[in-house]
Amino acid sequence: MRYQSTRGNSPQQSFLEILLGGLAPDGGLYLPVQYPKVTTAQLDSWRGLSYADLAYEVLSLYSDDIPEADLRALLRKTYTEQVYCNGRPQDNAKDITPIHWLGEEHGTRIGLLSLSNGPTLAFKDMAMQLLGNLFEYALKKKGQHLNILGATSGDTGSAAEYAMRGKEGVKVFMLSPRGKMSAFQSAQMYSLQDPNIFNLAVAGVFDDCQDIVKAVSNDHAFKARNQIGTVNSINWGRVVAQVVYYFQGYLLATKSSAEKVSFTVPSGNFGNVCAGHIARMMGLPIEHLIVATNENDVLDEFFRTGIYRARKSAETLHTSSPSMDISKASNFERFVFDFMGQDGKATAGMFKQVDETGGFDISKDAVFKDLSKYGFQSGRSTHENRLETIRDIDQRYGVMIDTHTADGVKVAREHLQAGIPMIVLETALPIKFEETIEIALGRPAECPPAFKDIKSKPQRVENIDADVNQVKAFITTHLG
Ligand SMILES: Cc1ncc(COP(=O)(O)O)c(C=O)c1O
Ligand SMILES: N[C@@H](CCOP(=O)(O)O)C(=O)O
User: Is ligand 2 within 6 A of the CB of residue 95?
Assistant: First the structure.
């Protein structure tokens, strides 16, 4: 499979080439030149496979430069019950991402796709554990080192750091928004003392951190000299690994591939739901993909109105679902490229307009009228909605959900369709946002034993301004 940039002005590359490179040289994001199609017969033949073997079926369509035996071995090493049982050991842990059915509402089943039982208790572990193993494999093959520059609003950072701990030839420089994450999230990252991990607390919001990552990646000389790579969903490897659990969710929810399901996805950087879009483009029978935002509702506004209006850092609100406090969703560009007919020049023009004027308006264009063919719907949730939903799901079903998943459930309930199962992606465990859980339920969230004393451990973090040059200087100094 060859990969093209969404800005249409970079040479096509293979899977392993883009894996270590991250952002395309023209500033765009990589996508395959075409989405491989999965037939219903093929889909039915995948029923009953282990998660690792299902992942093989999906990923082998995208990574033909990794020999079959190597890819299968990497996937079997990654997707084990031992790795994905950290949060809440469950009866069906062998499914890796089991569905926890809540019940029936308005004539349809509603369930949670459990994605947060990995080492850091958020869905990011699903792809990040694989990325760690893929990096190690690719670097060994090429005899290279990799210095990862990442941005986090709370969960990508710890997932990446836990996945890269002790990995030979890999250093991690992680930018996080100072004071904007939960105490548990900060402690997870900042308590790591590994010599290959560097945490930088930026005076700004997540979007500032992500802008710095992109600016550093766009300095081609610096990137090449310092072997800079990415672990954010900028990296196609992250997105494609997330495609797998849509297939798993679908197969677990249905008996035959004639059936349809809908997914609701708590969204911030649009990476998770972009993976759902790709699964749908491959032919997975998804009725709707419902984008659920918090008060930072740029994406909801776009799907309702056709107007994309990225907010400035100062307008980005600090909410009780802080991992979704994002106003410039990186992966939205991948979807724009698709709905613009994979026209790189048009996509580059639209994002130039975003840089210059803050957004674009397609409300009157034919492409917006045509957007329904992609199956997207959307909604937003607020702090009050979050508290109410956490309370309701606890009382009605005896299940405690985190604040981001609560945003998903709130919005999912507004889009139920009789007879079409609704699967809400559970993106983190409640303990990560324990302060809000305590407010909602008046009792603490359950904490896995591995994290009992996480907040009392000594922390190692450097404060830094939202300044590209300061970040570059830090990297240069610490690479020696
Ligand atoms: C817990 C949680 N939920 C939802 C999201 C949103 O996912 P995405 O950024 O892929 O849209 C994130 C981070 O992005 C997250 O950490
Ligand atoms: N919510 C994320 C933000 C980064 O998203 P990514 O999917 O692009 O890595 C986080 O928790 O850091």
Answer: no
Selecting among 37, 77, 124, 345, the annotated active-site residue is 124
Q: Using one digit for the tens of pLDDT, what is the confidence trace for 450-473? A: 999 999 999 999 999 999 999 999
Nearest CA to ligand 2 atom 12: 152
Tell me the three state secondary structure of residue 203.
strand
Cα–ligand 1 centroid distance for 113 (angstroms) = 14
**Cα separation, 121 vs 172, whole angstroms:** 20
Which of 213, 22, 194, 51 lies closest to 118 in space, CA to CA?
Answer: 51
State phi, psi for 473 to the nearest 5 degrees. Answer: -65, -40
CA-based radius of gyration for the chain: 21
Dump strand ranges (E) for 115-221: 146-151, 170-177, 197-203
Let me know if 124 is a catalytic residue: yes
Strand order in the sheet with 197-203: 228-229, 146-151, 170-177, 197-203, 462-465
Q: What angle do CA 269, 270, 274 make, to 5 degrees?
A: 150
Sign of CA dihedral 446, 251, 275, 298: negative
List the domain boundaries for the chain.
Answer: 93-121+237-441
> Three-state SS for 387?
helix
Mutate which of 156, 188, 236, 267 for ligand 1 pocket (most atoms within 8 A of beta carbon): 267
pLDDT per residue as tens digits for the range 60-103 = 999 999 999 999 999 999 999 999 987 566 678 899 999 999 99
Of ligand 2's listed atoms, the one at least distance from the Cα of 124 is 7
> What span, in angstroms and rounded, lies between the C-alpha atoms of 107 and 198?
50
What's the CA-to-centroid distance between 149 and ligand 2, angstroms?
13
Q: Is the pTM of this model over 0.90?
A: yes
Ligand 1 centroid–CA 295 distance in Å is: 14
- The CATH code that applies to domain 93-121+237-441 is 3.40.50.1100
- Please tell me the distance between residue 389's alpha carbon and the centre of ligand 2 in angstroms: 23
